[in-house]
Amino acid sequence: MTTEFKVCNCNRTMPLDAAAGTQLGAALGTAPIPIATELCRREVGTYLKALDGVDDVVVACTQERSLFTELGQQKGTVAPLRFVNIRETGGWSAQAKQALPKMAALLAVAALPDPEPVPIVNYDSAGHVLIIGPADQALPWAQRLREQVDVSVLLTSGSESQMLGERSFPSFSGKKIKIDGWLGAFNVHWQQANPIDLETCIRCNACIEVCPESAIDLTYQVDLDKCRSHGDCVKACGSIGAINFMRGETAGANDRNGKFDLIFDLSSTPLVHTHQLPQGYFAPGQDVARQFEDSLKLTQMVGQFEKPKFFSYKEKLCAHSRNGKIGCNACIEICSAEAISHNGNHVKVNPNLCAGCGACTTVCPSGAMAYAYPRTEEMGLRVKTLLNTYAKAGGRQAGLLFHSKGQGATLVAQAGRLAKAGWNGIPARIIPLELHHTAAVGIDVWLAAFAYGAANVSVMVTDEEAPQYLDALQQQMELAQTIMSGLGYAGVHVQLIRINTAAELDTFVNALAPAQTAEICATFNVAADKRTTLEFALDHLHRHAPSSVEQIALPAGSLYGAVVVNQDACTLCMSCVGACPESALTDNANTPQLRFIEKNCVQCGLCEKTCPENAITLAPRLLLTPAAKELQVLNEAEPFHCISCQKPFGTAKMIENMVGKLSLHGAFSGNINRLKMCPDCRVVDMMANKQESSISDFK
Q1: Which of 22, 233, 498, 669 could staple 207 via S-S, CB 3.0–4.6 A?
Q2: Pairwise CA distance, residues 270 & 263, whole Å
Q3: Are 62 and 92 in contact (CB under 8 A)?
């Protein structure tokens, strides 16, 4: 299947003509591409004609995306439509005449096939909304929303200006509120803190009439600062039994809970503290504009919904834990949605809470956690296609600008429009690349980009990212820069840029100097396995590096390194071998020997924490010689031979330690030689010794 490209110079505001169309066609492997001037107006017929077939149609305009989409729907086309922005990303910049290679690259990426479908996470909401907050805020919103959704109210305080009228929606009051769950499956727990239980109260106002301190308002909440506990209200309530000042003296009597589909939290401080809030939870606080905005979204969240399952998890690669010892905890610590938790030797991801940021995959050293929206290999194909097409069209020293599809995309578009107001705009060599989330792409893709010829990789973040994501990205970038500098490539290759305005973005990208990269571009494809991609990228970058180096020292916490064993302390008990999740440490079935394959080590630290002799330390480094893939002997000893059958078992040092520690133990006292026997001979010796007491002697 072929692709038809529809390119317009937007009323001659971009330097695109017939010659440019020929160059674009050559770079894209097609016939010369006709350049329209008013594709969305006078020349719209050429667009409609392209919709007659079944081939993909790529429209190089996002300004009029809605118009082109509507026209396609009216025509009933079956041709897949894709849109790409070449105007704000380069066609309007001060360097627009040099931006043709970038335009070709963006068109090529837009023509790539859609990513493979990913599993779906389902939500089912019946529209049962719990409004939480002070009565002044919660009750007016309950009245506004009760015609659209099924409302319940949880009051955190009373009000002198609001009142509870007829029982048109369930009302509760409480404090110490705890919320967990997600859209369609929220569990809320709270404590009935006020003496009046709104679930029981019939709102007869008898308590209000008899209270001498006027401590009870029309939301039927007792102001305990005013109340003198004379009990008249309790007597007036009578057999209704809604008022009980002694409820707290009975364990659990105040505990309440409920299940809800949606939460509208009007508390001044959100009750859910994660940076990435669960689907279906809205916390506008006291901001009236946000309250109206969130209420509109809330009323639309009734029915069945779905989202992609953003991650894939391979347990066998996970270096989280072994035998109760925690090794790598990176994904749990980084998750801003608290969707990842400890699960024995592995971790557990709640797909309903996962927001798709991908930070867990970026910090995962083994590749056990992988991003799936799109998959890493699909993102790698986009990067490779982008850079290969850019180079084929004559571009040099490309810089990738990764940004989010939210605020990041908005700032890129604004920076492009600033170019028509006297600013520079996005330079010809800087290519924006949109991500679902900026934390989803890490060191494997960055280094692959350098192997493909990129001179810079910049990740633009705004205030929409969680703080821990920025720290993690910065740490990963420092590691990548250490590797590139260690290989002898000059310049700053990776940068995390924190941008709040389009003007700041314009200033940064136009001041960014290209760094040195490999003279020859790599041809490998990014693999699904993170370590495999890193191996390909590092091998290419090392082979073409300006400096010949055998190893690079890395900072602590890196994903490569060696294991150093203190041979004087090590008894070759092989506890470390049993703990190693990556088969970096192995034994030898024929002789007491501890062996190590450095390429497999992810520096999780499980061996170090498991070693009973504290004989192991980690040494983060990147070994670039073939020795990294070879078995290295870290420690070995002559085997100890059983004094009875001469079969080898254990080591001399191990037996010596056992004799020293267990010689006074009741099981071996007087029979110390048994410690020098193999397990089989030890049992035979115990059965053959008739002078030894047995349990039958004590009947």
Answers
A1: 233
A2: 11
A3: no
- Strand arrangement, sheet containing 430-435: 430-435, 399-404, 456-461, 494-498
166's CB contacts (< 8 A; 6+ apart) are none
pLDDT in tens, 79-100: 999 999 999 999 999 999 999 9
CB of 178 within 8 A of CB of 189?
yes
| Amino acid 686: pLDDT | 81
Cβ pair 218, 267 in contact under 8 A: no
* Rg, C-alpha atoms of the chain: 34
pLDDT means per 10 residues, the chain with 699 residues, are 92 97 97 97 96 94 97 94 96 97 98 92 97 95 95 93 90 95 97 90 94 93 89 94 79 87 97 95 95 96 96 95 93 96 96 96 96 95 98 97 95 94 95 96 98 98 93 97 98 97 96 96 97 98 96 96 95 93 92 94 96 96 97 90 84 76 69 84 80 53
Alpha-helix residue ranges (DSSP H) falling in 196-246: 206-210, 232-237
Question: Contact at 8 Å (CB) between 212 and 232?
Answer: yes
With beta carbons less than 8 A apart as the criterion, state whether 650 and 639 touch.
Answer: yes
In the 8-state DSSP scheme, what is residue 430? E
φ, ψ at 469 (rounded to 5°): -70, -40
Between 530-543 and 443-451, two packed helices, what is the crossing angle to 10 degrees? 30
> Quick check: pTM over 0.90?
no
Burial per residue of 458-496, b for 16 or more beta-carbon CB atoms within 10 angstroms, e otherwise: bbbbbeebbebbbebbebbbebbbbbbbbbebeeebbbb
Nearest 5°: the CA angle 409, 375, 341 is 95
**Residues present in the chain in total:** 699
Distance CA 610, CA 97 (A): 62
Instruction: Report the 3 state secondary structure along 467-528.
Output: HHHHHHHHHHHHHHHHHHHHCCCCCCCEEEEECCCHHHHHHHHHHCCCCCCCCCCCCCCCCC
Helix (H) or strand (E) segment spanning residue 22: helix 18-28
Element (H, E) at 383: helix 376-392
Residue 440 buriedness (CB in 10 A; 0-12 / 13-18 / 19+) = buried
Whether 593 and 636 have beta carbons less than 8 Å apart is answered as yes
Would you tell me how many other CB atoms lie within 10 Å of the CB of residue 26? 16
| Sign of the CA dihedral running 24, 30, 35, 38 | negative
- As a whole number of angstroms, the distance between CA 413 and CA 530 comes to 32
